[in-house]
Design goal:
single chain; Immunoglobulin-like; five-stranded mixed sheet; 4 helices; elongated; binds copper (II) ion
Length: 228
Amino acid sequence: MNKLRRKSLLFVLGFLALINGLYSSIAAPNDYREKYDEIFKIQLILSVIIIIMVLVMAIVLLRKYKSNEAISPKEIKVFHNNKLEIGWTLVATVLVLYLFFISLPPTENFAAANNKQADVTISVIGHQFYWEFAIEGVVNSSFTSLNFTTGEIIPLVLFQNTTYLLKVTSADVIHSFFVPELGFKVDAVPGHYNYVYLENIQKGEYRVTCAEYCGVNHYNMPGLIKVV
Ligand SMILES: [Cu+2]
């Protein structure tokens, strides 16, 4: 049993070190992604701790069940335990409230994007099956994310030290403007605008994809954000 305990402990420590290494090696290119990663990391660690607790309890019980150790009548007669009931209700409530409160500031920040003043406003329009971008207030600035003759992806080029407000909508069905590496996903709904405020993105190329099933070519609705 002692050997098993030591092995389990090593396994847990190794796993946590692995998660930590994995995350510290990938730098988040912007604020949304950084906060999203932080919350994900906390949830992952909590989940791993809970999974290991449940597994250890199951193993201990199984071993006890399989062994020929006599079970005392006292152990059989436990049907209710107030301390346990209150304990796990409290712990679970505190954990859920904690996750709720750490998620609140980034969510509020994201939800209040339409109130923000940006240097440039860009309208993003979803189509079956490409994206259309246009700079507000600039005539003939509209272009599509896909060159229909060559199949080439045309990037939306942004400057690192400029702030942007994306006004996302759709021309046909519901799409979702998803940029995984930048940690945001916004529904593109016909007749309605959703907003994303962007600032301080590290230079690089970030793939855009559609995250709402919108028809046969949903899987291939490419786009690219290029920050220079
Ligand atoms: Cu789509």
